[in-house]
Structure formats: C-alpha cells, structure tokens
Design a protein that fits this description.
2 domains, globular
Length: 290
C-alpha cells in the first residue's frame, strides 16, 4: 500500500492511523462510552493511502455501515456479522498485502466509524470490552476480522460460504485463527462439516477445527492440492471498484478468480469428520449417556 507520510487524507478518502496513535486514543473513558472517540483530531494524525481511484473513497463504506446498524438495530448486533462481512469485502476492495496493514483498520474504527464499533461491541454495561476491537490483531479488530473472514472463506466469486462462516461466532472467534484456514480447501472442508450435519454446535466446530489443524499442517499439500487464484482477474476486480452499488438484499458476487477445487475440499471434509469422531468435545459423553 502506497502511503504519503505526514500527509493527512483528503475528505472522503481512506487513510491509515498508526497503532501507536490509535492505542493512545482508546482511553478507559472511551471504552466505557463516557467520552467519544476524538475522530477529528485523529484524522489530522492519519496518513493518506492509495491513489485517487475509487477504491480509496469512503462514501460507500460509510453508507454500508449505516445500513448495517439500521437493519440490525432491533436484533443482537452479532447477527449483523454474516450480512456485513461479504458486503464489506465487496465494497472495500483490497489486496491481501493492503489488508494486512493494521493502520487501515485503525482508520476505519477511529476516524471513519467509531459508532459502528461501539454499537457492535458494547456490553450490557455500555462499554466496549476490548481495546482490540478498535485497534488490535487482524482476527479480533472489528473490521479486519470480517474482511478477512470473507476473504478466507469465500469460494471464488461465491460469498455464501463466507456468510455461513460469519453466522457462527465460534468460527469467527476461534477457527479464524487456525493456520489451516489459509488453505482454501481446508476452509471449505470445515464448513462442509456444518452443512453435512457432522458438527452441530460451536463446541463441535471448535473441537473439529482443533483436531484437524493439528494433523492437517503436516500433509495438506499432498492430500488436498489447491489452485492459486487468478491474480489478473482479481486485479481487474479491484479496478472495477465503484462501478456498481453493493446489493443489500442479495449476496454480491466476488472476484471471479477461481473456485476452490471441490475434490480437495471433499477429501478434507471426509478426513476432518473422521478426526472429529475421536476428538474430545466437552459435554459430548454426558449427552450420549442421557
């Protein structure tokens, strides 16, 4: 990601905010909701990113987050994750290298839409429990966790697997951190355990993922080869940012950079199901005895 040091982003453009600046801004009073995030002051400390293309504008992201809050304001905020993740990925078109920059996610959470973070993560006492929801590891931060979940669980242009993954907080909170999720067939195989009914609960999914991850890293390439995504097609998708509005009532279509090899995903799903049968799951024995 190209950055222009010490040059603040123009109005309506994305930027990056350093981890150090972001961390200083999240005081206990901000977490408790007693004080607001000083977004205007932080914006002056942010750095410009990208070029003058549509990919780096903020309007579509802001509108998407407003729509999210409006749609799910009468339900539990956790239910918004499955809806927002694929649409955030579709709207905020990034390379993986760009998405690995925590400064971009800090900017979204503190300069662009701290209201979303507070809405999504505040507890019954009105406080956001973790600084990391504003600025933290990619699998924990409010926006990066959703973008990366959509990226790692999508099947080429098909966001339906990502939607399924993000409907399960155990996948987002635990499984997303497993190394094997970086391997596309493994990510799809875990989701197939859910659609097959091999795993039914969050405990089941966590146990299956833990057992599979331990064994999988030793043999994954030989057992379940993957085809690399088409980088040229993905680049074209990036360049098409802003040409159409995101769909609210139907899933958008992602980049047509290649589907996951189905045979590899099926092979792994069969193997993961076998591993799960002997994996320890808290409460499974008691349920069987009842």
């Amino acid at each position: 990601m190209n950055t222009t040091a010490m040059t603040a982003p123009e109005a309506g453009r994305l930027g990056r905010l350093s981890d150090a600046v972001a961390a200083r801004a999240i005081t206990p009073s901000v977490l408790r909701g007693v004080e607001t995030v000083p977004s205007a002051a932080l914006l002056r400390q942010a750095e410009a990113v990208g070029d003058d293309g549509e990919r780096w504008t903020t309007g579509a992201v802001v509108e998407l987050l407003k729509e999210t809050r409006a749609r799910f304001d009468d339900t539990r905020p956790t239910e918004s994750d499955a809806w927002l993740a694929p649409r955030l990925h579709w709207t905020l078109r990034l390379t993986r290298a760009e998405a690995a920059d925590s400064g971009l996610w800090n900017f979204l959470a503190l300069c662009l839409s701290p209201e979303y973070v507070q809405w999504r993560w505040r507890g019954k006492d009105g406080a956001v429990g973790q600084v990391a929801r504003f600025t933290g590891p990619w699998a924990t931060q409010a926006f990066s966790r959703l973008w990366w979940a959509a990226e790692l669980f999508r099947d080429g242009e098909n966001y339906a697997p990502a939607e399924l993954a993000c409907s399960d907080q155990d996948v987002l909170n635990t499984v997303l951190r497993q190394r094997m999720i970086q391997h596309r067939p493994a990510a799809q195989a875990l989701l197939r355990l859910r659609t097959r009914g091999s795993v039914r609960t969050g405990r089941d999914m966590n146990a299956a993922a833990k057992a599979a991850n331990a064994a999988f890293m030793l043999v994954h390439e030989a057992l379940a080869p993957d085809e690399p995504p088409d980088a040229e097609v993905y680049a074209e998708w990036l360049d098409a940012a802003g040409q159409s509005a995101v769909r609210h009532d139907t899933l958008p279509r992602g980049p047509r950079d290649g589907s996951v090899p189905s045979a590899s995903a099926e092979t792994l799903a069969d193997w993961f199901a076998e591993l799960f049968e002997s994996a320890p799951v808290r409460g499974r024995e008691r349920e069987g005895e009842g």
